[in-house]
Design goal:
The protein is of the alpha+beta class. Helix content is 34%, strand content 12%. It is built from three helices and three strands; from the N terminus they run αααβββ. It has helices spanning 5-19, 26-35, 41-56; strands at 62-64, 67-73, 84-88. The longest helix is centred in the middle third of the chain and has 16 residues, at 41-56. The two termini are 26 Å apart.
Length: 122
């Protein structure tokens, strides 16, 4: 079955609901990692979905400075106000930017030693 935006949203919906109405802090970080472990079913399905959607060309359809990226989901009531951007980077530091309302990352390294902001997969 081809990965579509709707299928992706169905996969990520439980994560959004879990994070909804919680402060974006270290407690939420720990709770997300406990509820959705990196090697658990949800994260594995999201990793496969991203890989398949990138290969299909609709996810990370833009490129600049060696970084592929794209907005997958705009903030809506159904997404609990969250937006989702997917960024694919290799051997490059991304541009400095801010998220004034906070940011939740699912880090999906393509190689075991890769890290994002010093953090491994999860």
């Amino acid at each position: 079955m081809e990965m579509t935006r709707e299928l992706f949203f169905q996969l990520v919906r439980p994560v959004l609901a879990f994070a909804a109405a919680r402060p974006l802090d270290a407690d939420l970080d720990a709770a997300l990692n406990a509820q959705f472990p990196y090697d658990g079913n949800t994260c594995m399905a999201l990793r496969r979905a991203c890989r398949d959607a990138i290969a299909a060309g609709w996810m990370c359809a833009r490129e600049a400075g060696g970084i592929r990226y794209g907005r997958v989901l705009k903030p809506t009531p159904d997404s609990h106000g969250f937006s989702i951007d997917v960024v694919q980077m290799q051997d490059v530091a991304g541009p400095h930017h801010r998220h004034p309302h906070g940011e939740i990352d699912l880090i999906m390294p393509l190689t075991p030693e890769a890290k994002f902001d010093g953090r491994p997969g999860g």
